[in-house]
């Protein structure tokens, strides 16, 4: 076992903050996890959400990469149907030119928003049937040196070695990643139902490529770690409220923790929220170590990406520290 550990940041806006405050905290977090040995720091494209400020994903990636030294920074992901492949190639070609060897490009096929907002983003292209694998191949073509003779070129971008990742929350994405021979990042932090079946399909159908000889699976999970189980459980209520907002379609900035969720959700909302949060590791270092070890043994993933929606910034930094120490301990124990 030599598990890499990384961060997914949504640039979550907490109650009382503005996006400008969020961006400062994201950079502080990135510098913190870089010191702790995290592999990469990804930002996710979302739109029209009052609690998520990572809509201009490429811009924010540049902000984080510019404020760190060795941490890989990328998208988790860019929602490819929202963008022409050429524009994505130019944006990430610019980022890779500015921060060589440090940029990842994770690609998703979902809109990252509601249908009305997706229409506002795409215009008449909203009605065009999407060709996710085809768009990925066009993106690969723009990045290739062979495209130098084409009439349409990505400059910067052409000839640059930018790792592509396929993001997914369903078995369909597993087949795309396997067919293209690309690493596969699964959104088990909010879509746990198909996680095990999707990564099994990916491994079974994987075709080696020039980029990757063997399957590579990254699992994103929720992590809320604290000195005690009781404190972690209390911090977890902010994340539960965040997902309750998704279930009830009443999104608000990240709320402070509460002593109990009783009275805040109805029974069916609780069931739906808990179902979405199935892959959440909440507790003290001892509990985290036990549950994470079991998860890694069962899933055999290559990398774990933690996302921690914690209201208090210092408690969030502490959560990522405990998570890093836990993974390091598990890696050492397996040697």
TrEMBL record:
Domain of life: Bacteria
SUPFAM superfamilies: Bacterial luciferase-like
Domain Luciferase-like positions: 16-297
InterPro entries: Bact_Lucif_Oxidored, CmoO-like, Luciferase-like_dom, Luciferase-like_sf
A Pfam family: Bac_luciferase
Family: To bacterial alkanal monooxygenase alpha and beta chains.
Protein name: Luciferase family oxidoreductase group 1
Organism: Mucilaginibacter terrae
Organism ancestry: Bacteria, Pseudomonadati, Bacteroidota, Sphingobacteriia, Sphingobacteriales
């Amino acid at each position: 076992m030599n598990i890499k550990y990384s961060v997914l940041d949504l640039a979550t806006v907490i109650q009382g903050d503005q996006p400008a405050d969020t961006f400062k905290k994201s950079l502080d977090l990135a510098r913190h996890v870089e010191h702790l040995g995290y592999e990469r720091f990804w930002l996710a494209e979302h739109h029209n959400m009052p609690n998520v400020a990572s809509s201009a994903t490429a811009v924010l990636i540049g902000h984080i990469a510019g404020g760190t030294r060795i941490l890989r920074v990328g998208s988790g992901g860019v929602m490819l149907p929202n963008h022409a492949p050429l524009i994505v190639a130019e944006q990430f070609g610019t980022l890779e030119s500015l921060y060589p060897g440090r940029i990842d490009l994770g690609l998703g096929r979902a809109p990252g928003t509601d249908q009305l907002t997706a229409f506002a983003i795409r215009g008449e292209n909203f009605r065009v049937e999407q060709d996710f694998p085809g768009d990925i191949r066009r993106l690969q073509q723009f990045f290739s040196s062979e495209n130098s003779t084409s009439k349409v070129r990505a400059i910067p971008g052409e000839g640059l070695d930018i790792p592509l990742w396929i993001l997914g929350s369903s078995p369909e994405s597993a087949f795309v990643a396997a067919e293209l021979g690309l690493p596969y990042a699964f959104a088990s932090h909010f879509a746990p139902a198909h996680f095990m079946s999707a990564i099994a399909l990916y491994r079974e159908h994987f075709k080696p490529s020039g980029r990757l000889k063997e399957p590579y699976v990254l699992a994103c999970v929720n992590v809320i770690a604290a000195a005690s189980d009781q404190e972690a459980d209390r911090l977890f209520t902010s994340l539960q409220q965040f997902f309750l907002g998704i279930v009830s379609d009443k999104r608000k900035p990240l709320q402070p923790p509460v002593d109990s969720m009783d009275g805040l959700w109805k029974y069916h909302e609780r069931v739906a929220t808990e179902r979405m949060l199935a892959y959440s590791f909440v507790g003290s270092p001892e509990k985290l170590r036990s549950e994470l070890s079991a998860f890694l043994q069962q899933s055999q993933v290559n990398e774990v990406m933690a996302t921690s929606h914690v209201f208090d910034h210092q408690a969030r930094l502490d959560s990522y520290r405990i998570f890093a120490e836990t993974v390091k301990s598990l890696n050492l124990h397996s040697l």
